[in-house]
Design a protein that fits this description.
Length: 177
């Protein structure tokens, strides 16, 4: 898997160099990045295209706002005003999203995407608190599915092991176990 990731990283660098109309962003955790560094003989070529990000709430908010305003010609200012155009209850909805996602970039993007889709399906003009709560359930289910897929990939027979534990809380007392 690390070799495939290394190939993807090199392809991103090559595509960015040859095609100016496409901007490729590849988010990697630092530990995965280090694994590629250990096996790649041409890592210096990749390293020149890498920017390390320390995500703050302000940077996450700016990223979400830029994604929200992308299709529009007239763009409200960044820094919270774009958020307020799309989400009701401004700062409390921000607290709800960023707090629940623990300010992890991928999770914030996914949660906001689910919230916008929910609001659109309900024909709301803005993402409401109810839309955020509905998106929270969908987000949690997708995280659980991702976690299950990851464990299944690494431990193919884990479902057999987990099935042995299922229901033990109803059959046995803690002292008996």
């Amino acid at each position: 898997a690390v070799v495939f990731l290394m190939g993807l990283m090199h392809a991103c660098v090559q595509l960015s160099a040859t095609c100016s109309s496409v901007r490729i962003l590849l988010f990697l955790r630092e530990n995965i990045f280090e694994r590629v560094r250990q096996i790649d003989n041409e890592f210096a070529r990749l390293e020149t295209s890498v920017v390390s990000l320390d995500w703050t709430r302000e940077l996450l908010l700016e990223m979400i706002e830029r994604r929200l305003q992308l299709p529009f010609n007239t763009k409200p200012p960044l820094g919270g005003q774009t958020w307020d155009c799309f989400f009701e209850s401004g700062s409390s909805s921000q607290d709800m999203v960023f707090g629940y996602c623990q300010e992890r970039p991928r999770d914030v993007l996914t949660y906001c995407s689910f919230a916008v889709e929910t609001a659109q399906s309900r024909r709301h003009q803005q993402v409401t608190i109810e839309d955020l709560q509905a998106a929270r359930r969908r987000f949690s289910e997708s995280r659980l599915k991702d976690l299950g897929d990851e464990y299944s990939e690494n431990y193919p027979r884990i479902s057999l092991i987990l099935s042995r534990f299922y229901g033990l809380g109803n059959e046995y007392t803690v002292a008996a176990i």
